[in-house]
Design goal:
The complex is a heterotrimer of chains A (196), B (196) and C (224).
Chain A (H helix, E strand, L loop, with lengths): L1 H14 L10 H6 L4 H30 L7 H23 L1 H7 L3 H4 L3 H12 L7 H29 L11 H19 L5
Chain B lengths: L1 H53 L8 E6 L9 E9 L2 E14 L2 E9 L5 E8 L13 H7 L5 H6 L9 H23 L7
Antiparallel strand pairs in B: 1-2, 2-3, 3-4, 4-5
Chain C lengths: L2 H14 L10 H7 L3 H24 L9 H23 L1 H7 L10 H11 L4 H31 L1 E2 L2 E2 L14 H25 L1 H14 L7
Antiparallel strand pairs in C: 1-2
Classes of the chains: A mainly alpha (196), B alpha+beta (196), C mainly alpha (224).
Chain lengths: 196, 196, 224
């Protein structure tokens, strides 16, 4: 059990990091990584939504769709994620206004974050998760932690890029992408020694 | 009065959304009815063809495939096991297994074993390894150098079959083959008449 | 609707407002599947098909969809068409569908499609919307093909799976991995920006004119 949990965590948060080795969730990774504090905010918001959405989509898939309406998976999952984001936004606004003020602006962006849908899809199709609700939820959590690690590391790098004098054609997106490539190379290189 | 107005407003918003959902589900259901038999047939055809290649049989007409059930303590990466008959004579076993730890998560392998548990041939049925990297391991030459003709014991004593530069794919292949052999061992211990 | 308008729409989709190379939308899938040219082609075609269908339906229903729930309605329509495209590909092009893997259902969250629905299809009649779908889809496909060609030729020494060089050629392996994908796209966008700068400084006046035309035609999509 402990070993399984560790395997899931290592394989989706570090070795198979969603951003650096599966290139998922790149839009917010590039868009909201300009400073470490916004990056952390986005990371936390994604962690919150992804954990809950994996729990919800797994339950719905298991109870309603499995073996009968599997072809509706994409439609149902994206609707669940969109309504979950909306719901979380409304609840946070009412119950925890301080948290809402710090996470609120990131929440609507999460619906179109492909990492969330990918985590939900992977969790129901991956045999190593063993068809367990707990593992599926943990899978979402781990993937989101991996995303947070990636976006926070990268925001530090971005803060430095902005101070540098970059050749004109490379200003903006290109230099950001190239630096993301270098960070990804370092991240994957450091972790490639891990075997399990 | 006000309540009535509110309800009318809500209906005005929700009804179109509901109708759109119904329309899309209807379209998907029609499409599913048309495509699912084709998809099933494709799968069956690929499966038959891979059996024919793996066991080097010219025609699939006299082929009989019996699906075996395995005990609950079998590894989760063992997807299915079949006993294969040609002209009513048992010619071996086909194990469908996942190899974990590959670069992109997992690879799915078909492993053909003869009646005494030696590997006849291997075939990769699903992979998304980096082109030019995974292919260096997942090919006939690598299989015949390290796996084909060997039994579980021989593999456990021979040097670890890995190719530098494609270690993750090598690892995944190794774990897949071992799962298949483990599955064979489980089936042969499985009481009455098992493989002999 | 005349030939000039259509041409302008295609010019927008392919060059001025290319979804991937200028607007930098739909990056996730682009980075993940452009390891080979054939994968790029399949992905481009799948996205174009979804884009054309969803643009058409959204444009037809644009008066019927209530303002408050429009995003939800668009998502339902888009995910429906993605599922249909996925099924058709699974049935008639199983090897292509297997290669695209999880990135096929992920077309749903491709910002290009939602962006075009919001910025164009919800404000225009069906015919221009279809043309817009084709134009933007073609722009995306060509960008993917460029990226795929660079990565496949340099990264694995082949083109459409055919080996181009002899045994002595050592491919630049990093280009086929995710870090290489980031860097290739970065360099490609830099090249486009460089060419654009050159073109603009040469023909400043006429460039300004086209820019104005573009501005009149559409509303900027929100940063999705």
């Amino acid at each position: 059990m402990i070993f399984d949990i560790l395997t899931i965590f290592l394989s989706v948060a570090l070795v198979g990091n969603y951003v650096f080795s599966q290139t998922l969730g790149i839009c917010p990774f590039l868009g909201v990584s300009s400073s470490p504090s916004t990056a952390l905010g986005m990371g936390l918001a994604v962690t919150f939504v992804m954990t809950l959405s994996n729990a919800a989509t797994y339950l719905i898939f298991d109870l309603l769709l499995r073996d009968r309406f599997e072809y509706l998976q994409t439609v149902v999952f994206i609707l669940v994620i969109a309504s979950l984001v909306q719901l979380i936004e409304m609840m946070l606004k009412k119950l925890l206004p301080t948290l809402y003020r710090s996470l609120g602006i990131y929440l609507p962006l999460i619906t179109t974050n492909c990492a969330v849908l990918a985590a939900a899809n992977n969790a129901v199709s991956d045999e190593s998760i063993n068809g367990s609700f707990l593992f599926s939820t943990f899978y979402g959590f781990s993937a989101a932690i991996g995303f947070t690690i990636a976006i926070v590391i990268f925001s530090g790098v971005r803060a430095r890029i902005d101070e540098e004098d970059v050749p004109k054609p490379f200003r903006g997106t290109p230099i950001t992408l190239i630096c993301a490539g270098i960070v990804a190379m370092i991240f994957n290189g450091l972790l490639s020694g891990i075997r399990f | 009065m006000n309540v009535k107005k509110n309800i009318a407003e809500t209906v005005k918003i929700v009804l179109p959304l509901f109708l759109i959902c119904t329309l899309m589900v209807f379209l998907i259901a029609i499409c599913n009815a048309v495509t699912s038999p084709v998809i099933e047939r494709n799968k069956q055809k690929t499966f038959d063809r891979s059996i024919a290649t793996l066991f080097s049989i010219a025609s699939t007409e006299k082929l009989k495939v019996e699906k075996l059930s395995f005990p609950s303590n079998a590894p989760a990466t063992l997807i299915s096991a079949h006993r294969i008959y040609n002209e009513d004579l048992p010619i071996g076993y086909l194990m469908e297994v996942d190899g974990i730890g590959a670069y992109s998560g997992k690879i799915r392998m078909l492993v053909a074993l003869d009646c005494s548990g030696r590997i006849i041939d291997l075939l990769c049925s699903e992979q998304s390894e980096t082109p030019g990297k995974g292919d260096r391991v997942l090919n006939a030459q690598f299989y015949s150098e390290h796996y084909i003709g060997k039994s579980s014991q021989e593999i456990s004593v021979s040097p670890y079959p890995a190719l530098s530069g494609s270690t993750k794919t090598s690892d995944a292949l190794y774990s897949a083959v071992n799962t298949a052999l483990e599955g064979y061992a489980l089936l042969s211990n499985d009481a009455t008449g098992g493989p002999s | 609707m005349n030939a000039k308008d259509i041409l302008l729409q295609f010019k927008n989709g392919l060059f001025d407002r290319n979804p991937l190379l200028v607007q930098v939308l739909g990056v996730c899938a682009s980075l993940a599947i452009t390891t080979t040219v054939s994968n790029s082609l399949y992905m481009g075609l799948a996205v174009t098909a979804v884009l054309v269908c969803s643009n058409l339906l959204i444009s037809l229903l644009r008066r019927f969809i209530p303002e408050q729930v429009r995003i939800a309605a668009y998502i339902v329509i888009i995910s429906g068409f993605v599922t249909i495209v996925e099924m058709v590909m699974n049935a008639y092009m199983p090897s292509a569908a297997a290669k695209l893997g999880i990135f096929l259902p992920l077309i749903v969250v491709n910002c290009i499609i939602l962006g075009r629905a919001e910025a164009f299809a919800s404000k225009n009649t069906p015919l221009p919307s279809i043309i817009d779908g084709f134009a933007m889809g073609a722009g995306f496909t060509i960008a993917l093909l460029l990226l795929g060609a660079i990565r496949e030729i340099l990264g694995s020494g082949s083109f459409f799976g055919i080996q181009l060089f002899g045994q002595s050629y050592t491919p630049i392996g990093i280009l086929t991995s995710p870090p290489g994908a980031f860097m290739t796209l970065g360099c490609l966008i830099a090249l486009i920006q460089y060419l654009k700068d050159r073109l603009q400084s040469k023909t400043k006046a006429s460039a300004d004119q086209t820019h104005k035309d573009v501005k009149n035609k559409e509303v900027e999509p929100n940063d999705l």
